[in-house]
Amino acid sequence: MSPHTEAGPAEPAVAQANAAVLRRFPFDDTRDLADARRGFLGTAQDSVVKDADGRVVWDLDAYGFLAGECPATANPSLWRQSRLCSDHGLFEVTEGIYQVRGFDLSNMTVVEGERGILVIDPLLCAETAAAALALYRAHRGERPVTAVLYTHSHVDHFGGVRGVITDADVAAGVPVLAPRGFLEHAVSENVYAGTAMGRRAAYMYGAALPKGERGQIGTGLGQTTSTGTVTLIPPTVSVTRTGQTETVDGIRMVFQLTPGTEAPAELNIHFPDRAALCMAENATHNLHNLLTLRGAQVRDPRAWARYLTEAVDLFAGASDVAFASHHWPTWGRDRVVEFLSTQRDLYAYLHDQTLRMLNQGLTGPEIAERMELPPALERAWHTHGYYGSVSHNTKAVYQRYLGWFDGNPAHLWEHPPAEAAKRYVDFMGGADQVLRRARQSYADGDYRWTAQVVGHVLFAEPDHSEARELQADALEQLGYGSENGAWRNFYLMGAYELRNGSAGTPTVTASPDVIAALTLDQLFDALAIRVDGPGSWDVDIAVRLHITDGDTVTVRLRNGVLTHVTGTGPAAADPDVEITLTETDLRALLLGTLRPADLAARDTVEITGDPRRLTELVGRLGMPDPDFAIVTP
User: Fold this and answer.
1) 10 Å Cβ neighbour count for 399?
2) What is the model's pTM?
3) Using CA atoms, how far apart are residues 57 and 72, in angstroms rounded to an integer?
């Protein structure tokens, strides 16, 4: 088997399985195609969006190949979904409501008011948001942005805000609306575990993969993530309850809060004067994630289903169109009710049936293999697992209720992957013997087993070139057969990195705007995560910070734990050094843009005690690794 760095063809077993998909599902149903193109007004003349340095952050034509026939290297169902998602341009949803689609992973919605426009969910980066706004204005005129609304706390729904408004706009009275808890969740998700999430998101969205028949063809939810500048302007208006109404620029909105569904802070919006319902990301044309593969807190499918029922009861009877922050709208009151009700049944079924089997003693992987959707659900294209999947969502429900442990004591204290792999390979007769048998499994079309068993060889002997090549080939075939866009990207990214080395993390979400939005409590908590615990077991350092425009905070590193407390009580006793400084200087110090050694030179800073203790404390903070290994130890 000769090494190669590029993707290969589909093996016969995968090609046959993909061909069978064409016979299984109603590909002659073209309603989604008509809906996805309805209301098209035009698209941008320049096909690429660039940042200030001229780097391409989005390419509108990158997915032009999807207009062709589905090749053997792609699941026809995913190919169909990706073709629908790749349509880009400005679309009229209904009178006064427009969407720019295909300019990022998400949609940007524009609602026309009396003087200007309300922008809903300004994409992931400032560059694509600015391009989307320019497209809208090219067709509808130079209307000013009079309000911005974030439907939820995921970065692809707020990161482009500085492409549509500025701080000066907000200071002049442009409101920014968001659901209760938005800022806390938006910033914490992208900072606390942000490095690991970002690295895994590189696999999930495949932004670094070549676009094409053997590479990245989409994620199911949209095509991929843009790679521009992530920004954030904090909300100025909080939506705190279902039934709350707000009117901005003459646009009347009625809100439904849906916390714990697709995001921990999320809302739906009804526009009663337009008979239009925005479902944010709670009802899109796919099965969504209950636990996203990039990592997050497990979502609650039971609550999700109940909020969808509530949306039907509250709004569907007065809605001629339902649209979301991804995909295309659904028109007609009967179709809206059917769409939302079927989505509701989808999440409720996965929840209830997982619990039924869980209580019969089945484990997460066992339930995932047994779970089948009812025929009525499987027939609906919008229930397909293009982004979430029945398999990993079922395991997520199991995890939500019972956690990682399946109850078998043999699994309670297993060896970690690399140590277990060495023992497995030794038991199986060594790497060469494992690979000999794995090649036969590959020839038999059992790519799942090939990847599983060769993974042990790689973790036992990471530099084994034949194992790397066979593993890459197996992952590639699994990707070619996947209906789920995120699965395909994970498999193909694994193959790519085994052959070419790490592609890194293309999209950085912990941007300066996101970091600046952290409260001081969150910032101290984020620093605590970076402490080298074992290297600090014997250290006891206390620094008292008198913030001239705020509170007194004492930070203590003791027993490898960094804690902070406000005030001067017993937990703040006996500081080694006291520093009086502004919050701006403190933030600069904590973020590393101001060195401890440079503090004394600032006129706004006073220091009492030993300043070297602060330098020592800061020196105990490590940096996360945005390039850690995933397919090798």
Assistant:
1) 15
2) 0.92
3) 29
Among the listed residues 336, 182, 179, the one whose alpha carbon sits nearest the alpha carbon of residue 244: 179
- Residue 91's closest CA among 83, 79, 102, 80? 102
- Which residues have a Cβ under 8 Å from the Cβ of 427 and sit 6 or more positions away? none
| Total Cβ atoms within 10 A of residue 298 | 19
Beta pairing, strands 145-149 & 117-120: parallel
Closest of 359, 327, 444, 594 to residue 11, by C-alpha: 444
Beta bridge partners of 256: 268
Q: What is the pLDDT of residues 225-271, one digit of tens each?
A: 999 999 999 999 999 999 999 999 999 999 999 999 999 999 999 99
CA distance 147 to 116: 8
Q: Identify the band that residue 1 occupies on the pLDDT scale cut at 50, 70 and 90.
A: very low
Cα separation, 592 vs 590, in Å, equals 5
Q: How far apart are CA 631 and CA 624, in angstroms?
A: 18
* Residue 611 to residue 597: CA distance in whole angstroms: 8
Question: How far is Cα 43 from Cα 41, in angstroms, rounded to an integer?
Answer: 7
Tell me the C-alpha to C-alpha distance, in Å, between residue 53 and each of 124, 168, 548: 18, 24, 39
Query: Taking the mean position of all CA atoms in its chain, how far away is CA 580?
Result: 40
First to last CA, the chain: 24
Q: What Cα–Cα distance (Å) separates residue 616 from each residue in 179, 542, 556, 632? A: 41, 11, 12, 34
Q: Locate 572 and state its tokens.
A: 């703040």
Q: Are 240 and 265 in contact (CB under 8 A)?
A: no
d(CA 241, CA 239): 6
In terms of C-beta density within 10 A (0-12 exposed, 13-18 middle, 19 or more buried), how is residue 134 classed? middle
User: Whole-angstrom Cα distance, residue 488 to residue 552?
Assistant: 51
579 by DSSP, 3-state: which? strand
Contact 588, 594 (CB under 8 A): yes
* Residue 537, CA atoms < 13 Å, CB-side half-sphere: 2
DSSP 315-384: HGGG-SEEE-SSS--EESHHHHHHHHHHHHHHHHHHHHHHHHHHTTT--HHHHHHH----HHHHHSGGGS
The type of residue at 368 is: A
SS3 163: helix
Under a CB-based contact definition with an 8 Å cutoff, are residues 161 and 126 in contact? yes
The sheet carrying 552-558 orders its strands as: 561-566, 552-558, 540-547, 577-581, 606-609
Computed from CA positions of residues 389, 395, 401, 403, in that sequence, does the dihedral angle turn out positive or negative?
A: negative
| 407-456 pLDDT per residue, tens | 999 999 999 999 999 999 999 999 999 999 999 999 999 999 999 999 99
Tokens 């090939």 belong to 450
